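Sequence only, no structure available. Ideas?
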Amino acid sequence: MPRPDDEIRAMTTEQRRDTAALLESLSPEQWGQPSGCEGWTIHQLVAHLTLPYTSRLTRVVREVLRARGSFDRAADRMARADARTHTPQELVVILRRNLDHPWSPPGGGPAGALSHDVIHSYDLTDPLGVPPVVTAARATTVLEAFRRPHLKGFGVDLSTTRFEATDADLAVGAEAAVAQQVVTAPLLDLVPLTTGRRLGTDGAGPATVGG
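Reply:
I predicted one. C-alpha cells follow.
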C-alpha cells in the first residue's frame, strides 16, 4: 500500500535535514571535489538541490527557453551560476530554511520530491566515500515509486532488468520470469544502481549481476 502524502513529506524533511548535517561537516576541499553528477562539483550540485528555494518559476522557464527546451542544459547553467553567487555556507543555510518546502518536480508529487533529494544525496556521499544519508524507509519509498519512464533517462531498462534487495523483501523492474538480467544488492545500494550511478558489474559496486 502506498504511503500517505503527509508521511512522504515528513521523510523529505528528514532527508533534507540529514543532507544539511552532512554538508555542514565538509571541508572547503570537499566542496570543490567532483560530485556524482558529471561535470558538477559538490558545490554546484548543492546549488542545484537548492534551486527550488532560490529561483522563481519565471527564471527556470526563461533558462529552458534559452537552452532550446533542454532542461538539463538549463539546470547546468543555473547550478554553475548559483554556485558562483552563493558560498557553501549560504547554500546550507538556504537548505536548512527550507526543510519543509512544498516543492516537487512537475508531475512528481511528494514522492518525486523525496526521490530528487534521495537520489542526489548519493551524488554527494558516493564520491566523498562516506555512508549514505538515507534510511531504509526512504529508499523503499523511492524505489516503490519508480516506473519504467522514470529511469529511462538514466539508461536503465526496467522491462528487462530486475533489481532485488538482499536484505529486504523488495524488487524493482521486470518480473522474475522474464528478466534478462537480475541485479542483487543491499537495499540502500539499489537506489544508485537503479539510477545508473553504480555499474556494479565490474567489481566497482556491491551488486551481484546474473543473467
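The longest helix spans residues 5-24.
Hope that gets you unstuck.
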